[in-house]
Amino acid sequence: MGPTVAATAYGLAAMVAAFVFRPRSVPNRDIFRAAVFWVLSVPVLFILPLPMLMLATCGALAFALAPPEKGDRLAFYLLVFPAVPATVFAQVPFPGINYLFMLDFPRVVFFCVLTAAFLSAARPPAARYAPTIGVFVVLLTLLFSVMAFRDENLTNGLRMGFNYALIYALPFFALVRLMNTDESLDKVFSSFMFLACILGFTALVSQATKWNIYDFVSMRVGQPVFAEFRGGFLRIAATLNVALTGFVMGLGLIAVSYFRSRRRLGFLMASIYRALFAAGAFFTYSRGAWIAVILGLLVYLFFTKAPRGLRPAMIAAGVFIGAPAAIVFALNADFGAIDAYGTFAYRQELLRATWIHFQQYPLFGDALFYSRPHFAHLVQGEGIIDFVNRYVQIVVEYGAVGLIIFLTPWIVLVLGLLKLPGRHQDFWGSPAEHQRAALLAIIASFLFLTATSSDVTYFKQFGVAILAIGAGYIGAVRAKRAGQTAADPAAARGDLDQPDLAEAAARPA
Q: I want to staple 106 with a disulfide (CB 3.0 to 4.6 A). Which of 81, 176, 297, 501 is the partner?
């Protein structure tokens, strides 16, 4: 059979298998809607001829299948925006200029699924109880937009500013409005599991056929793709890239651990999911993703199993001793014996060149870094520098100011999650403890992966979604406690501080 028929058949087989093994830990109608979308998107992507036609058709499907309840659209968005590869994009025409802006599928989904929530959803609890994260997302958007004018004309600068708003600020505020109860997080975790199922079965089918089936879509729209084998295995990228596909497998593994801790997932199904997600992560052969997955699982175990009294000291030791030691080791170690592909040595050279660059452009970076002599040996055949570290990329382009604004919302999010227990003794052993642990695990995994990859494909969209989910969760928990405290001031001290009701009733008046 021809490649179009073969790719369509293989893609549909992966989608059907994922639907059969869909998670059932919590009621989540969005999974069925998303499964229908993925199934229908396969022939659209593999048969329709033009990128704009693909995007428009998939956008119409997303609009038609979106849940009527705005609160259910968060999980649906997370499940559908990775369905179309980032290589499928199109320019939106506009009279008098070359084009208005670049359209990819996450932006299509924003317009078709999230706009209604952005315009009409109620003010989220995060706006009152966790506003700092949103403030810095806006500042980051403004910084990137203003800095675009350094080497662009007015039209291109305005276009890039609008693109940054569609990537960062607008999706963040739409998603945070949908994350308005702590119970919504269980749907998010089940959605992560189903997304991992989809990409996991896609990885198995691709490995069995020795063909990245979604590469066929990229080839059809004129994007160059190359099959890469390591250790005899095809590296699987699915609809994302190898690093993000491995990260999604990690999201699935963290979600499995969470539902097992909550006793909502049996041992047999948990073992099947773990085997599937581990195989999917292995087939990416992304060592950064492997470490990110392991780190995420260790963080989840730490915040659910480690003695609570030792946690602050262990966290401080990791931040102030472990992290600097790892950086020094990465800069000076000789990886030649264990790195047959030379990628570690390339990263070392990139860090050394960045340090020279930072000394010359410390505050706001340099938009013309490609022409600087200290980066000349890193320029590749396509005339680009492969920034395999997003933090380095920000330092080079936007300096220390850019890095601080980029990291601050993540730091605020982590600190907000760490401070959630407060004086509420009933937090420990409750669902909130496991929810917090899973969120911290996801954040740790993503932040590590950010140090091993640039912001290609949908890196930015995953980061914005995690920030919005975390900020919304903190706001929802704090708002819930504020309501309980207003109804019963004694609840502010925590359940363990309240007198036993039976004893109180037995006392004489």
A: 81
